[in-house]
Amino acid sequence: MLGFKKKETHFNHYLVELCEKIETAADAFADIVNDYEDVEDKIANMKVLETECDLKTHEIIQALRNLHGSTWEREDIHNLVREMDNIVDSLEEAANRFLVFDIKEIKPQACDMAALTQQAVEELKNMFELVPEMKVSSQVQEKIIEVNRIENDGDLVYRKALSVLFREEKDPIELIKWKHLFEQMENSLDSCETVANIFEGVLTRYE
Q1: Residue 1 counted as domain residue
Q2: Residue 72 predicted with pLDDT over 70
Q3: Among 125, 126, 118, which Cα is nearest to 188's?
Q4: What is this structure's pTM?
Q5: What are the residues whose beta carbons fall under 8 Å from the beta carbon of 82, sequence distance 6 or more?
Q6: What are phi and psi of 6, to 5 degrees?
Q7: Do 165 and 175 touch, CB atoms closer than 8 A?
């Protein structure tokens, strides 16, 4: 089974910390779509959270320079943290477009997708928290499978959202707006799944 050196266990704290920041951003986005009030302030806060995630991502990449003789390949960690950062980038992009597109009312499917993103991010954080104790590798695999299941649920919500949008929305401008918004939310869920898949590949390679 994959064994992590002491310095790598310490390095794993970076991944948990980044996940915690992503979790905060996912919660903030969910708050926007579920309570569509004080939107400008909430969206401004999303930008702050996105910047914090960027800084943590750069911190982790910088720390890679001091990680020698690692069980992990540097490319693994680089790809992992970049994809983790993409989760927040997509959420911040969607939130920003609420203002740019002058969205007056949130569609219910946006709330559903936000909730699924929260669930997926929580599973990712739990997954990384388990990493130092590889005796519970079966639990790590369970988290990976759960993230994939959540993303599959997100696909269903996304497809239904588009179906309803194209069937019921008579204003072509509104249709274009919401098609873009749903795509950004779906991108965030896709990134969650990609993070889980990258990590699964690491486990498979080093077992």
Answers
A1: no
A2: no
A3: 118
A4: 0.91
A5: 57
A6: -55, -45
A7: yes
